[in-house]
Task: structure prediction
Amino acid sequence: MAHNVMSATCPSRVVLRRIGARWTVFIVNALEHGPMRFTALAARIQGITPKVLTETLRSLEEDGLVSRVAFDVNPPHVEYELTELGRSLLVPLRAVREWAEAHVPEVLAARAAREPSGT
Result:
């Protein structure tokens, strides 16, 4: 069955919604180099609240992009890691991140040109 994201009923829209969710890109990029604990993720991703980090990690786990491993040690801790499916998302997200970083001056200039001059 061929999927067509432009169709309102196509299930691929669910996948695009997950990828396009505000914090998904940041979490996937943060986990690029290996497993991280929750507190390390929160420190790495500036501006994310613990509640939103928890919700997004749960969604990413549900979608098979992130795995959660609980360690039965004292004190107990949990680590999050990209699954093979999650790792496959790194290439396209890296391209988007590089594009954003390379073109931020042009985007900011376009925004500034559209702002009222205050006169």
User: Anything to note?
Assistant: The longest strand covers residues 66-71. The chain has one domain: 12-114. The first helix runs from residue 12 to 20.
